[in-house]
């Protein structure tokens, strides 16, 4: 953890604000550019620190966006968290808020109906695509237990009300024992 | 502003209730929160119908910013204005952030153990299954689409091929194919209006 000057922190805050405006499809889509900024250009983090930060945030509970908090922490401690998180959230949240208000005042506006009904089929497709992409490392590892775990989880979550925490626990144990 | 409430739908009583509901769902969200959000908001709390959830998620995805934060923000604003926004986004981020920073502080000690990486991989398999189930459940939200269920599913399948299999950039697919589907919906609505 290096000591960043106030000017460095401000610059990081502004850079994350820019990333926020570009983060269509979620914060994780900006990861390549954030890597360029933090690791290559400024050497505030090593390559391994960057990769570990993302893996950790993916494994921990909560939105994947929290990898930004971990990066901020590793760069500059608590102030780094504040600079990175407020930067990544303020611009996009302001836009989302404005759009939500505009749309809700005009729920029957043709443009609102076209926009939402045109995009919902794609959203279903994107959810299934994310499932596909997340399945790849498990399939690549080549254990039948991993495939079974994916199928079992899909079925249980789709058709029952069993808490997903049981499945997460099962997945962690199966993985630790190298069954998955 | 009165919301049209379909039968069986409830609304949160106070911002604090939203804070705890979002904390609860975020803390269960290993490998992503959307699957849990659908379960908690649609099935358990019944604050949203399956269609409303899918519509909010669709809008959240095309706007810049983290999908789940945009979704929390829109839902919080709908019920309690800015207080709802603070409660829902705060619930989504505050406690999970403390957890992940604590994990980051501890991670260095464990990162070399094969059991740890194995457990992460096993949890990744569960996360994949959870998001697949979310996609299957979200199909319920397509039944009222002006395109009809069959055509909506064709577009969903095409999205899976482009983004999942061929790895086209999501922004390009949403803008390109999204323009096609929106044009198709506009055409259908105009057809419906003229007959």
Rg of chain B, Å, rounded:
19 Å
Helix content of chain A: over 70%
Relative helix content of chain B: over 70%
Radius of gyration of chain A: 20 Å
Class from secondary-structure proportions of chain A: mainly alpha
Helix-strand topology string of chain A: HHHHHHH
Distance between the termini of chain B: 33 Å
State the shape of chain B. globular
Largest sheet of chain A: none
Residue share in β-strands of chain B: under 5%
Q: How many strand units of chain B?
A: 0
The overall strand count of chain A is 0
Structure description:
The complex is a heterodimer of chains A (180) and B (195). Chain A is mainly alpha-helical and 180 residues long. Chain A has seven helices and no strands. Chain A has a domain at 1-105. The mean pLDDT of chain A is 88. Chain B has 195 residues and is mainly alpha-helical. Chain B folds into two domains: 9-106 and 116-143, no CATH class; 145-195. In chain B, helix 1 (15-27) packs across helix 4. At the A-B interface, helix 1, helix 3, helix 4, helix 5 and helix 6 of A face helix 2, helix 3, helix 4, helix 5 and helix 6 of B.
């Amino acid at each position: 953890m290096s000591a960043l000057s106030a000017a460095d922190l401000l610059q990081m805050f502004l850079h994350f604000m820019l990333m926020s405006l570009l983060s269509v499809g979620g914060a994780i889509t900006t990861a390549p550019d954030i890597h360029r900024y933090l690791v290559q250009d400024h050497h505030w983090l090593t390559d391994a620190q960057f990769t570990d930060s993302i893996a950790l945030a993916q494994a921990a509970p909560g939105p994947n966006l929290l990898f930004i908090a971990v990066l901020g922490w590793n760069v500059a401690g608590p102030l780094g968290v504040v600079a990175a998180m407020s930067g990544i959230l303020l611009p996009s949240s302001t836009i989302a808020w404005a759009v939500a208000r505009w749309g809700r005042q005009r729920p029957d506006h043709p443009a609102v109906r076209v926009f939402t009904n045109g995009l919902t089929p794609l959203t279903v497709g994107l959810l299934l695509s994310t499932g596909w992409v997340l399945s790849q490392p498990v399939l690549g590892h080549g254990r039948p237990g991993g495939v079974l775990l994916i199928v079992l989880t899909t079925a249980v979550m789709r058709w029952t009300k069993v808490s997903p925490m049981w499945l997460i626990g099962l997945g962690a144990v199966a993985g630790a024992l190298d069954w998955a | 502003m009165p919301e049209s409430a379909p039968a069986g739908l409830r609304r949160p009583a106070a911002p604090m209730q939203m804070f705890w509901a979002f904390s609860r769902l975020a803390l269960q969200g290993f490998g992503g929160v959307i699957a849990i959000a659908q379960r908690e908001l649609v099935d358990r709390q019944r604050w949203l119908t399956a269609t409303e959830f899918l519509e909010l998620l669709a809008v959240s995805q095309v706007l810049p910013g983290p999908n789940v934060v945009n979704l929390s923000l829109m839902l919080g604003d709908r019920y309690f204005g800015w207080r709802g926004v603070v409660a829902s986004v705060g619930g989504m981020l505050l406690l999970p952030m403390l957890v992940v920073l604590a994990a980051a502080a501890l991670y260095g000690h464990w990162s070399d153990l094969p059991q740890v990486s194995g457990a992460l991989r096993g949890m990744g398999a569960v996360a994949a299954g959870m998001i697949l189930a979310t996609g299957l459940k979200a199909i319920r939200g397509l039944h009222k689409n002006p395109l009809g269920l069959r055509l909506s599913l064709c577009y969903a399948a095409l999205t899976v091929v482009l983004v999942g299999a061929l790895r086209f950039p999501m922004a390009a697919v949403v803008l390109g194919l999204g323009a096609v589907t929106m044009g198709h919906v506009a055409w259908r609505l105009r057809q419906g209006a003229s007959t």
